[in-house]
Design brief:
The chain is built from 4 helices and 5 strands. It is of the alpha+beta class and 135 residues long. It has a 5-stranded mixed sheet. The radius of gyration is 15 Å and the shape is globular. The protein starts with a strand and ends in a 17-residue tail after the last helix. The mean pLDDT is 91.
């Protein structure tokens, strides 16, 4: 993980900061109203060197045993440093402290190595694609 980066659960965060990070990390990102997203979060984890947001993970929950990390994002300038793994591990620990028993993730083939480094293992699961997108 980059030296001097603080990974923190439930630190201060603004939608403007998220838009800035997402514009850098996700080509084609459009400004988003993050208010409703942040209001529904079980928790969020941020990473900041010197106050600048360079990493983010949102965790939603079902109010019980299940939690789901979403939108884990690392700024391109600090990728491949272990920061993404640190974000997910911090999110898992914070979710556990809040009562979650399981952390679920969409297991995509191109993210297999990352998911394994975070501690996930593949499981059989079902999915209904509500977008109607084939494949």
């Amino acid at each position: 993980m980059p030296v001097g980066v603080e990974v923190l659960a439930d630190g201060d965060l603004t939608g403007e900061e998220l838009d800035t990070l997402f514009h850098a990390a996700r080509p084609g990102h459009r400004d988003t109203d993050f208010g409703p997203v942040l209001a529904r979060s079980l928790l969020r984890v941020t990473a900041r060197p010197s106050g600048r947001l360079v990493g983010y993970a949102d965790v939603i929950g079902d109010g019980g045993a299940h939690a789901f990390p979403l939108d884990t994002t690392v700024h391109p300038g600090v990728r491949r440093t272990g920061l993404g793994t640190a974000l997910v591990r911090a999110a898992a620990e914070a979710a556990r402290r809040r009562g979650a028993h399981r952390l679920h993730v969409d297991f995509e083939p191109h993210l297999t190595g990352f998911h394994q480094r975070c501690g996930f293992r593949p499981t059989a699961a079902g999915l209904i694609d509500l977008t109607g997108t084939p494949g």
